[in-house]
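Attaching the record inline, Q. Sequence:
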Amino acid sequence: MKSSRISALLAFLALAVGAVFLTACSSDSDSGSGSGSLDSELIQAGTLTVGSDIPFPPFEFGQAPDYKGFDIDLVTAIAKDLDLKLNVQDTAFDTIFTDTAQGKFDMAASASTITPERQQTVNFSDPYYEAEQALLVEPGSDITSVQDLAGKTVGAQDGTTGEAYVNDNADAGEVRGFPNGPAAIDALKTGQVDATVIDQPVAQDALDKGQSGFEIATLIPTGELYGLAFARKDTALLDEVNSILEKMKEDGRLNGLYQKWFKTDAPKGVIDGTTTNPGESS
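Structure, as predicted:
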């Protein structure tokens, strides 16, 4: 009888030790993709807090908390893969990088072009979108090129590469900044400016939705690449997001977002990672 009890006790202890071992292994295997390994870097444990300048259709638009757009779908997929809740916060574009660097957001997703200047403030993910600028004018305008902007009043969104491009490449009489993309387009439609320079997909989205009072005079091939921005110290989150972006490129989810929002396939250079940023070596 005594021997039976000892045997039963030893069997129980073996099962208990095995359960503890399996639990530890399970915890270790989950740490790479779940929220546990990232919570120390997140503003709020279990939540991915994302800054975005809204509206900037078709990348981000709508009313809180039901934002929509290409970027919103992208970060929703990323949060799901990280097993995190998503909290998108509307913010001004001209401060979005300093706010991210200072820890106001875990990440910024706002159709943000990767530039060497911005990389002094934040780290960027691998590129997920390739864009160019568009020169917008009133229908019938004699402005057909960047050279025709000499002496003109040109609108652009504050803090954007479109604004920087006009300042650096056009002999405009005045470059007038506006708080968001739709406001820059409206300024042209109401005669506040002679032309507007803005991201091509934003201009095309407005035309596709039936807006009138402007047209695209020409496209400006700037070779811009969009990336998600992170505080420079938060390398673990950046690495996780880059891994997810790679999976989305491989499994077709990123291409699906291109088809949903732009009715086109993602550029080959974005999918296979062969694109390079302007001013950077290949």
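The CA atoms of residues 224 and 271 lie 15 Å apart. The chain has two domains: 47-128+227-272, 132-223.

More tomorrow.
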